[in-house]
Amino acid sequence: MASPCCTSGFKHEGTPVGEIKDANGIATYFATPKKNKNPEHAILFISDVFGHFNNNKLLADEFANQGYLTVLPDLFNGNPVPAEAMDAGKFDLGSWIVNYQPDVIDPILTTMIKYLRETLGVKRIGAVGYCFGAKYVNRFLRKGKIDVGYYAHPSFFTIEDVSAIEGPLSIAAAEIDPVSPPELRHESEAALIKTGQHWQINLYSGVSHGFGVRGDLSNLQFKWAKEQAHAQAVAWFDHHL
């Protein structure tokens, strides 16, 4: 389900310290930990619709600061939803997103996983997904693909996606989220129980869809929730990767 909240939010201040490099033909932002240049564990960052947007790069840097090589591939071939859409408050997401369905996104992620494992020698891969990216954490949390998953305020996913996971999954959910309302979250819980995998859902009160990556950091509730959701992800990877 497309919703205006998928293209709304706030731009975060800061200068990313990683770099964009080619990874098997995919423009990819690399955030490399300072003390671990050749890590055996890495994080595949599956972004929201804004792609190589400053907020996403800064989050990738935060994971690198925790010791994880983090790669943020361009899923949209240089055509993400423009950051200006946040300011305008209007964007035809429905017309845009039809061009970025699994037949387009799946091969990119497959290539990235192969690159991490075969070119960089990564032995275990965690994946983070925000909004749009959450669906693909579900789809790729399979043996031989992604080992551990985490996502925040998911969108465009199905219960079938959740039911098919084959690894540990942690979810950061927003109390106010028309894209992932309580009834869908409860269905996800029921599906996760049936998978037999380790799972976690943390519900953050008083915040809305996008809080984990595009929240208003001048609002102390949103700032706290964003930081706690990130800490949730790091703790999950520290334990399961």
TrEMBL record:
Pfam family, one: DLH
TM regions (residue ranges): none
Organism placement in taxonomy: Eukaryota, Fungi, Dikarya, Ascomycota, Pezizomycotina
Dienelactone hydrolase domain span: 26-240
Swiss-Prot/TrEMBL keywords: Hydrolase
A Gene Ontology biological process term: antibiotic biosynthetic process
InterPro entries: AB_hydrolase_fold (IPR029058), Dienelactn_hydro (IPR002925)
GO molecular function: hydrolase activity
Protein name: Dienelactone hydrolase family protein
